[in-house]
């Protein structure tokens, strides 16, 4: 087996995927059987600078290089080979946000991530204008808000893109974007697989009085669908990616994609009536739609799969961050008692306590809002835990409540799709670090969605593996082979999964918690209004 892998590495019968997540950059090298050969990662955190959540360019490049270098070192250690080429490469990253550049390729303002809830006015104006939901996270909302704010950089814009689009441009020289990532920049026309032409014209008309030298279409990246080649690694790009300069240029790149698209690929959820839930700092659910929705909902993003099928996306800004903070507190206590904490064991023990809890969490209430939450209309982050004297305050209920609240905002949006729009779901596949602990996360999500939830053996691979699969699809697909068929018949043919059906008491318990959650939003708003941010000053 090792000999086969060595041969695949030497011949370049491999695909490399690198994804920039909110807390980790991960590089995954796969062989032609779609198995992971080697991986590397780099931990990072977003920063709040001048009122905007951002990552600086230095961290972006350092993280890219470190993740690649760690993966390359693993290849050398395991197989005794210096990595000089791969068959194909793909980059993926957090969707949305705002990266605007001038004609010299200089970043005009620090990267504004999806996490910023600063574009409310712009998002509302554009939603009304287009009669199409434009969420605050979307790149076009960031651009229009900058215009409304009369920011000085706007007239100088020559190109705007997402984080994945930026990395791809840096390494290939091509201003390209995958259709899934593009659908979080600006609305897509599913018949043309391009930006919606009439809405582009509406936007240009909206800002015509400003007299800018640019038109919208001229500053957006070109849209590609999965399977198309979107550039090759340049000599300069190869030197950036591999600091040791062993990597050779000329490697083909697939279109850069967003983390939503790679999540769909990693969970084999690109076919109609399938869906997936991706859990991390934020949480989103993607349902591949059979028909258009009957109305415009601010809670529902309309995006696409990497091959251009329409998707209803519910994206909540907050998920695991507050839960992780509480787990960190428990770890501190454990270590203060003189014990050495194994993070995986700590996570497993505490999460499993939730299975012993009262179905509704014992009357406890929590809002894990480290940042503002678009679905509930809360503009700033104020993590909050509340109970009444009558609440059953114990560890199982405490843990269950924090798991419930991690998916509560998501459930509000999902209920619109399933209860108002009668969207049919045959299966939901879940992925993210939470599901490394068996059963618990699945049971909670099944209760929230009231549908069976599966976790596949590949789910832990995540988006970096997903974009590596898209890079492999570009090179290895049969003529006219759809992405759905490629995934079903090749990638996931022998994949194993565990499905958990919703438990009726869990479903009722979650519904009871949701009543408490929606009623208590006034408490969360009061915390935003009355708890100052700069208490250190």
Report on the structure:
The protein is of the alpha/beta class and 537 residues long. The protein has two domains: 1-95 and 230-267 and 463-481, Nucleotidyltransferase, domain 5 (2-Layer Sandwich), CATH 3.30.420; 269-457 and 503-537, ATPase, nucleotide binding domain (Nucleotidyltransferase, domain 5). It has helices at residues 2-11, 57-79, 120-130, 139-148, 163-172, 179-182, 197-206, 216-219, 235-241, 259-266, 321-336, 343-353, 395-420, 440-449, 462-476, 483-491, 504-519, 521-530; strands at residues 15-20, 24-30, 36-43, 47-49, 52-54, 88-93, 99-101, 159-161, 176-178, 188-189, 194-195, 222-224, 257-258, 274-279, 283-288, 301-304, 310-316, 365-367, 384-386, 427-431, 453-456, 497-500. The strands form seven sheets. The protein has a seven-stranded mixed sheet with strand order 16-17-15-14-20-21-22, sandwiched between helices. The chain has a five-stranded mixed sheet with strand order 3-2-1-6-13. The chain has a two-stranded antiparallel sheet with strand order 4-5. Helix 10 (259-266) crosses helix 15 (462-476) and helix 14 crosses helix 17. The longest helix is centred in the C-terminal third of the chain and has 26 residues, at 395-420. The protein is globular. The relative contact order is 0.12.
